């Protein structure tokens, strides 16, 4: 098919690889007496408020993507856009705040600073407001206007960078300058969440599938920004001794795929991802390449084609990272159909599409970026109509 729309390069991991370079723990300051009764009272109340948020929140839905019944394959989307802050990152932000509070890193009156392309910052601004501390998001200047509005709506402040690769250093410098805490999601995402259970996303998926005809999915597809979600799901699968395989799709301008296929944790890129929330110019410490079974490199035009196909299929707009995952999930389903295998596949709705109306749902933006989604959308439509993926 023209323009390479029929393929998304993938590979399988061989020898052991590593994550990103180690990052030192936040510097400890000596200006707070942590045995002080007033501080301990504040800490208890802050932890209670964060835990209460989880207690108030119902689980997110597991939606079905319509496929022909004769295929004997079920495709599900875990809809993380229904969290209070509208994205998968709500789970991560809650875990990071509990981790920072219980480690003694977040202090009353001192700001929390985060390097983020948007959704994590929205969720962290919410939790910072919940416990009454200032929040500053260090983010690319190209971040969608709607995400910026949401960060400010929750009481956060945005600090912009022209080079996405500079976010880490600027966030760390702001923490030093303000006496605050650099949350550093890219280092701590994989360790702040209890991957053995405790209502993490993996446990939730399996619980919701228990009455389905294929309760143990053949594949779970999870995109990577920090890598924390794929690490949590993969660890849980291994811990519970399931046969499910984990696939991590990677967008253009991201180095995860290259680092995974070459076993090179030092690989870097020279630009930021156009698909907000996923893809990084360096191998992040929270991305665990040894834990996943497969990666796919997904063209950005294929990502946009997939989110538009999703809207046609279920009537819901979703963000770009959802499209990257859906494209890969559909490719896996196509392989299963071709091989005569039955089973289920799960991917994620990471955040809502109304945050990206000026990007992935804008034909003017596509033209400005030089993205032609036509061949990729034709590939999806042909597959859903015939069961064969066009080559």
TrEMBL record:
Query: Sorted alphabetically, which Gene3D superfamilies does this protein's record hold?
Result: 3.40.50.1100
Q: What does the record give as EC number?
A: 4.4.1.1
Q: List residues of the Tryptophan synthase beta chain-like PALP domain.
A: 60-351
Keywords from the UniProt entry: Cytoplasm, Lyase, Pyridoxal phosphate
Catalyzed chemical reaction(s)? L-cysteine + H2O = hydrogen sulfide + pyruvate + NH4(+) + H(+)
Indicate where the modification N6-(pyridoxal phosphate)lysine is found in the sequence.
Answer: 89
Transport in keyword set: no
Q: Where is this region: Disordered?
A: 1-24
Concerning its family, UniProt says: Belongs to the cysteine synthase/cystathionine beta-synthase family. Cds1 subfamily.
HAMAP family the record matches: Cds1
**Summary of the function given for this chain in its UniProt record:** A cysteine desulfhydrase that generates hydrogen sulfide, H(2)S. The H(2)S produced by this enzyme modulates the balance between respiration and glycolysis, and contributes to redox homeostasis. Probably eliminates toxic levels of Cys (which can induce oxidative stress).
Q: Return the protein name.
A: L-cysteine desulfhydrase Cds1
Gene label: cds1
């Amino acid at each position: 098919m023209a323009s390479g729309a029929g393929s998304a390069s993938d590979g399988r991991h061989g020898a052991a690889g590593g994550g990103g370079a180690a990052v030192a723990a936040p510097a400890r300051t000596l200006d707070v007496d942590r045995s002080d009764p007033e501080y301990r009272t504040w800490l208890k109340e802050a932890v209670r408020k964060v835990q209460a948020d989880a207690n108030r929140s119902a689980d997110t839905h597991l939606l079905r993507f319509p496929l022909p019944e004769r295929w004997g394959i079920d495709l599900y989307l875990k809809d993380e856009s229904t969290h209070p802050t509208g994205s998968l990152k709500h789970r991560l932000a809650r875990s990071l705040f509990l981790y920072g509070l219980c480690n003694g890193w977040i202090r009353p009156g001192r700001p929390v600073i985060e390097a983020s392309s948007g959704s994590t910052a929205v969720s962290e601004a919410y939790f910072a407001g919940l416990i009454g501390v200032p929040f500053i998001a260090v983010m690319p200047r190209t971040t969608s206007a709607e995400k910026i509005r949401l960060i400010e709506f929750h009481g956060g402040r945005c600090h912009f960078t022209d080079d996405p690769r500079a976010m880490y250093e600027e966030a760390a410098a702001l923490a030093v300058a303000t006496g605050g805490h650099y949350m550093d999601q890219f280092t701590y995402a994989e360790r702040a969440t209890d991957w053995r259970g405790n209502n993490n996303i993996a446990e939730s998926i399996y619980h919701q599938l228990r009455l389905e005809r294929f309760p143990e999915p053949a594949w779970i597809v999870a995109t990577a920004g920090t890598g924390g979600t794929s690490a949590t799901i993969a660890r849980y699968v291994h811990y519970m001794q399931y046969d499910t395989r984990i696939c991590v799709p990677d967008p253009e301008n991201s180095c995860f795929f290259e680092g995974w296929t070459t076993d090179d944790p030092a690989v870097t890129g020279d630009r930021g991802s156009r698909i907000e929330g996923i893809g990084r110019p360096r191998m992040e410490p929270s991305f665990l390449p040894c834990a996943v079974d497969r990666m796919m490199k997904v063209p950005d035009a294929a990502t946009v084609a997939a989110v538009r196909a999703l809207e046609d299929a279920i009537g819901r707009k979703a963000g770009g990272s959802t499209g990257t995952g859906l494209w890969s999930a559909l490719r896996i389903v196509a392989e299963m159909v071709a091989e005569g295998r039955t089973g289920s596949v799960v991917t994620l709705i990471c955040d809502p599409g109304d945050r990206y109306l000026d990007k992935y749902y804008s034909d003017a933006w596509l033209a400005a970026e030089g993205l032609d989604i036509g061949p990729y959308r034709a590939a999806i439509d042909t597959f859903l109509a015939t069961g064969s993926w066009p080559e």
